[in-house]
Amino acid sequence: MVFEEIRFPLKDGREALLRSPREEDAEEMLRFITRASGETAYLMCYPEEFADFTPEQEKAFINNARCKPNELMIACFVDGKLAGNCVISFRTGMKDRHRASAAIALLQAYWNLGIGTRMFEEMIRTAKDRDGVRQIELEFIEGNSRARGLYEKMGFRITGVKPDAIRMKDGTFVNEYMMLKRL
Fold first, then answer.
1. What is the rounded distance in angstroms from the CA atom of residue 132 to the CA atom of residue 124?
2. Domain carrying residue 128
3. pTM for this prediction
4. Residue 134 confidence (pLDDT)
5. What's the CATH number where 93 sits?
6. pLDDT > 70: percent of the chain
7. Alpha-carbon distance 152 to 159, whole Å?
């Protein structure tokens, strides 16, 4: 799916742009995810996991997302730079097509400006506009209190825990929490 451009003001007075990523964003998208995954231990990948990913592969990934009727990726740009992105994926099976999954990443320099809230508002609006979708689900890693606060603010509640689901670089295990928002 393609997300039409939306501009909105940030808490610091700057303007942000939300839109679907395009092919020409591929290199910046790769730099973004590598940087974001290095800024926090709470994303599902480490920066080195993207070392072999090429701009051509990222272009294919972007084009694939734009063509999928059951997936929406939104990128946020501030001052022409990629600040964050999110994705909502809709299930299609007869038994689970009432469910959607959400994920988000935001560079630290852009925390506390309202970007995460606005991206979630757009994902929630998209889910509500889709016939039959009744809930959005997501996961977060134990200790990520900032993300948990945002998710709870947006109406998500913890529904379960996967004990020791995540193994950190130092060998320790942490829990993964599942959250759900009913629409």
1. 13
2. 6-134
3. 0.94
4. 98
5. 3.40.630.30
6. 100
7. 12
Asked if 50 and 34 touch (Cβ cutoff 8 Å), the reply is yes
- Give the angle 37-16-45 at the CA atoms, nearest 5°: 10
Helices (H) and strands (E) in the chain, counts: 4, 8
**Looking at the domain assignment, is residue 25 inside a domain?**
yes
Edge to edge, the sheet with strand 15-19 lists 6-9, 15-19, 71-78, 81-90, 99-106, 135-141, 173-182, 157-167
Q: Compute the distance between CA of residue 178 and CA of residue 158 in angstroms, rounded to an integer.
A: 6
Please, what is the Cα angle at 61 between 58 and 64, to 5 degrees? 150
Please work out, in degrees rounded to the nearest 5, the angle formed at the alpha carbon of residue 93 by the alpha carbons of 89 and 96: 70
- Whole-angstrom distance, CA of residue 101 vs CA of residue 70: 11
| pLDDT band, residue 123 (cuts 50/70/90) | very high
Tally the domains of the chain: 1
Q: Is 117 left (phi over 0), alpha (psi -120 to 50) or beta?
A: alpha
- Summarised one tens digit per residue, pLDDT across range 19-77 is 999 999 999 999 999 999 999 999 999 999 998 999 999 999 999 999 999 999 999 99
